[in-house]
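Hi Y.,

Following your request, here is the sequence exactly as I used it, all 197 residues.
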Amino acid sequence: MARHYESTETRRQQIAEAALHVLAEEGVGGFTTRSIAARVGITDGTLFRHFPNKQAIVIAAMELLEQGMLVDLDLEGEPVERLEAMFRHRAAFIGANGSVGRLIFSEQLVHLAGDEGRAAVARWRARSLVFMHRALDEAIAAGRTVSDIDTPCLAQLIQGVLLTFALRANVGAPEPAEAVDARIDRAWQTLHRLIFR
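Below is the corresponding structure, written out as tokens. Let me know if you'd prefer a different format.
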């Protein structure tokens, strides 16, 4: 039987996706090259044809996670609509990806990726906070908020609700997309009533 070879870029993506799932499901202790390779259907030696070392695999996995999480942060337009779009995207990404979504809030990736990973996570967090702070500051200046709560507190409230999606996705059986969508709607409506006019 002839072997099927994937392009280097396809194989790198498969390895990064497998690394995310292994880390999310088995934790740092189960994060081995053998477990990653088994998910992809290759030998662990083959991993290193595509990556120079295990840390590079983790960095690629982090980049993949970042692409899914930070896609399309719109910096223009009405601030409450921008926040809602960000919230809905993040909640859906976290809710749909189960334990993988939880990695956004954990230090497991940083532990395995070292200084480069720590810098990447700091960039993610900074980018997200800048986005939220800017939109919240604009909403406050436009009189769109219900009280004079400061921007960092409002951003923490939004992040806290997003964290509940990661925790819920990690417990019990996976939910159908419709159930996740309904929870996102209820969560945003609640946040909107608490924060905005």
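The two ends are 65 Å apart (CA to CA).

Thanks again,
Q.
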